[in-house]
Amino acid sequence: MANSTLLVPDRKFVAAIIAAGGGGLKKCYQCATCSVVCELAPGDRPFPRKEMIWAQWGLKDRLVADPDVWLCHQCNDCSLKCPRDARPGNVLAAVRQQAVQHYAAPRFLGRWMNSGKLQAPLMALTAALLALALMVREPIESALNFGEPHGFYAEFFPHWLLIGFFAFFTVLAMLAAIVGVVRLWRAMKETDGLYGSPAPPAPPAPPVGVLKSIVRAVVSIFVHDKFAKCSSRPSRRITHLTAFYGFVALYIVTVWAVLDLYVLPHMGVASLYPFDLAHPMKVLANVGGVLLVFGCAKAILDRLRDPNDAQTTTAFDWIFVWLLLGVGVTGFVIETLRFAIDPVAESAMVSIAYGLYFVHLVLVFQLLVYLPYSKFAHLLYRTTAMVYAEHTGRTNGARPPARLTERSLPKPETPAALEGSAAGN
Question: Cα-Cα-Cα-Cα dihedral of 387, 390, 394, 398, to 10°?
Fold first, then answer.
């Protein structure tokens, strides 16, 4: 007697995918063209055909734990070749958005951060927190007899308070990110192989060690070799590389500034902060800023001028790219004002500069502290999935370890009963 399993579609999940840009989901009739043309899909477990089946059936738990969802880099070769205009690339992008919200801790922040209507209230909350920090500055300095030499912007927001404020909330964000990554890793281990075809005996140990898998994944990210395989939109590699390295450069400069202020002086090295224009870190910051602004501007223009209209851009996408661009542009403006304004003679311009600096800090907060809840979380979850894929041999055709497949269920393509229609209507 044939084995069978009962599938219960999550209709709300199907509706959420469609609302998040996967509107072509129900057009798919399983021709498998998408899996054939995808250059990133492994031979024994190709995607995105199986993900399109699971999405139509509303298998939320399976999809949000599927590492292949993150191995997709949305080059949209599959969408352009689809004979039914089902746009699998957009469907997988919508699934990733749902996964970010699913693994967010707390989850309501994942929903809030990806709502265009809630961006203004969230920024207002950030502004209120910054204002509160400014209000307690003088009482703390008086109580602790604490002070420091102030630079131009440090007169408005001293370094100790700025670093302490962002360090506190960044640590909270890091803890939330760790929770999300651990949840994803466990889910991938628990569900991998459950809906796949019967596998031959697996090797007793993972094909690749975790450390080596991490190295491979990080190298792949830094060279963006996956984007190089995109045939329909090869320029996306340049777009992502410039924005990525711009952000990395700015992050390095930020860390070095903290070290220069509070660590190097204790090692006998005089602090040079704030850096002048010729300082290597200032040069790196300006180069990074140019790369970041260029990458973000190009991403926006590419989305607006997509000749094939293959990619649906949602609030999930726009919020992230505009935040990145806002951080880069305001950073250049406040740097220019720092060198151009006489803080003694031009009081009105000083007030304007301080106001723009405050806006810049709000944008930086929105970008970094809300990282686990926005599209920026791709950095976490895609990296995790890539490490998992290397670790389990997914990228080289090897089968997962036995401990991942021993609980395998029969193929869902032949269920005896299916509650609701196949498309989740």
Answer: -150
Nearest to 134 by CA among 154, 97, 161: 161
Q: Residue for token digits 């021709």?
A: 31
At 234 the pLDDT is 80
- pLDDT higher than 60, residue 116: yes
pLDDT at 60: 94
Question: How far is residue 66's CA from residue 188's CA, in Å, rounded to a whole number?
Answer: 6
Going by pLDDT thresholds of 50, 70 and 90, the confidence category of residue 147 is low
Give the span between the Cα atoms of 405 and 407, in whole angstroms. Answer: 5
Q: For residues 57 and 20, what is the distance between their CA atoms, to the nearest angstrom?
A: 17
- Position 399 scores a pLDDT of 42
DSSP per-residue letters across 50-106: HHHHHHHHT-HHHHHT-HHHHH-----HHHHH-TT---HHHHHHHHHHHHHHHH-SS
**Phi, psi angles (nearest 5°) of residue 66:** -90, 115
- How many residues in total does the chain contain? 425
- From residue 359, alpha-carbon distances to 123, 288, 341, 368, 375 in Å are 10, 20, 18, 14, 21
pLDDT at position 139 over 90: no
Measure Cα distances from 126 to 108, 251, 363, 366 in Å: 17, 21, 9, 8
What span, in angstroms and rounded, lies between the C-alpha atoms of 176 and 106? 8
> Is residue 199 predicted with pLDDT exceeding 60?
no
* 50-59, 165-174, 189-198: segment of lowest average pLDDT: 189-198
Q: What share of the chain is helix, strand, coil (3-state, %, to 5)?
A: 65, 0, 35
Span 239-255, average pLDDT: 95
